[in-house]
Amino acid sequence: MEKNFDEIINDISWKGKENLNNSSSKGHNVMPSLQNLNEIVELIRKIFFPGYFDSCPFNNDSLKYYVGSKINMIYTILTDEIKKVFQVAVNNGNINKLEKERAEDLAFLFIKTLPVLHDILITDVEAIYNGDPAVEDVAEIIYCYPGIRAITNYRIAHELAILHIPLIPRIITELAHSETGIDIHPDAKIGHHFAIDHGTGIVIGATCVIGNNVKIYQGVTLGAKSFTLDENGHPVKGIPRHPIVEDNVIIYSGASILGRITIGKNSIIGGNVWLTESVPPDSKIV
Q1: Beta-bridge partner residues of 229
Q2: Alpha helices, DSSP H only, in the chain?
């Protein structure tokens, strides 16, 4: 059999050309870099946990230099990636001076959130350490636990989402999703001391609200029960459709909690529970 790829190559190239010219695909030649966005996450992990992911020794002076150099790198890379998502929105892939300055401002505003982001992430490490008897050292959590990996990406992505930066927040959470199996939408709102144990298969929807000191085990879904459709049969965006989980709640493995319902504070939701109605505080559902 003669093996000639010319017809296939021409056909795919023609379809690719049509996609590039299509209004829904404009600017895709300048899409954000997965490698660069992952580097931003890694740089933040290095400055939040100095000495864990770099072998250099530190003192007070060298630590300031180390953190400063990493923050400059984060600012530069993030500015470039924000410019790319702005380019996606325009036909010719070029953005004006105002949009370039806006990208720089947004990157700086994100940098300003890093101290608060660091503090809340430390509470997540504490929550896992205090709630898991298998942990012998905090380093074990920082290095090994998929939960803290996914929470780190989520915390970063959430701050970027608050700044209304398109696409990049979702990419950052999906990087963790593909690595850990934990799917947290960047728009979800999650309080301090958030603990994920084991983690694989967890889904937390976009409009979910989670309070403080909440612990979730593997396979938990905080999802939507149904979608409101418009006159064309398309889902209406932005409607609250995921659960509210109040403070001090534990949700055990395999539970599915669906719809805009409220799990009252201090409640325990047992494994494999299917829940579509609100429960009052101090409930135990099995």
Answers
A1: 235
A2: 6-21, 34-48, 60-88, 97-112, 114-131, 138-144, 146-162, 168-180
Q: Which residues pair with 222 in a beta bridge?
A: 204, 257
Structure tokens belonging to residue 13:
């190239």
CA–CA gap between residue 59 and residue 138 (Å, rounded) = 21
User: Which residue in this structure is represented by tokens 């709640």?
Assistant: 249
CA distances from 259 to 56, 271, 276, 283 (A): 49, 18, 6, 18
Measuring CA to CA, how many Å separate 162 from each of 74, 113, 169, 187?
A: 18, 11, 9, 8
Contact status, residue 74 vs residue 40, Cβ threshold 8 Å: yes
Q: Give 255-280 as a DSSP string.
A: -EEESS-EE-TT-EE-TT-EE-S-B-
Per-residue pLDDT tens for 149-184?
999 999 999 999 999 999 999 999 999 999 999 999
Q: Which two tokens stand for residue 267?
A: 């409640």
Residue 236's identity, in one-letter code, is V
Which residue bears the tokens 């534990």?
Answer: 250
- Record the tokens describing residue 74, joined without a space: 């984060």
Please state the length of the chain. Answer: 286
Determine how β-strand 262-263 pairs with β-strand 244-245. parallel
Instruction: Identify the CA nearest to 251 among candidates 209, 196, 201, 200.
Output: 196
Helix (H) or strand (E) holding 193: none
116-144 tens-digit pLDDT: 999 999 999 999 999 999 999 999 999 99
DSSP secondary structure code for residue 32 in this structure: P
